[in-house]
Amino acid sequence: MYSSNSKNLNISLSINDEERSVVVRPANTLLSVIREGLGLTGTKPGCYNGDCGACTVDVDGVPIKSCLMLAVEGVGKKITTIEGLRNTPVQKSFVEHFAFQCGYCTPGFIINCNALIQKHPNAKDEIIEEWLESNICRCTGYKEIEEAIKSVITAKSEEQL
Predict the structure, then answer these.
(1) What is the mean pLDDT of residues 136-159?
(2) pLDDT of 134-144, one tens digit each?
(3) CATH second-level architecture of 9-81?
(4) What CDD domains does the entry give (predicted)?
C-alpha cells in the first residue's frame, strides 16, 4: 500500500494525544493510515463507504468515519481512536451493560457515544436515538447501548449535584 516513490508525504498526526509521524500517499484514507501505518487496529474497517460506522474516530470532538477522510486532512487536528479511550466511563459502561456481542462495531459505537456525551451531557432519548443512527450493529439490538449511554449521563449528572 505504501510505495516508495516521490509522491509520498511524511505527515505528522496528533493521535491519542501523541504526535505520530507517518509516510502516506495523498490518497490514503485516515482509516488505512491508522491501522496499517500506525498499527492502531482498534478502528475497524467495515463498509468502506461511511454507512456502518465501524471506523469512527473522534476528530476535534466530532465523530468522523475514517474511511471517508483522507489522512492528510488530519494534519493539525486532534484525533482520538478507541485506544485513546481506555478505561473511560463510556467504555466501562459498555462492559457493565453488555452493550456488545461480537464486538466488531463496538469501537465505533464507543467513540460516537463518547462524543455524544461531550456535546450533549444531558441528552434525552431523541438525541441518543439520532446519534445511534450513524452506526450499525448487526448482532444485537441497541437497547443495551442506549442503557450504557444513559448510565454515563446519569452518573455525570449525579456528580454535578
Answers:
(1) 91
(2) 999 988 779 99
(3) Roll (3.10)
(4) fer2
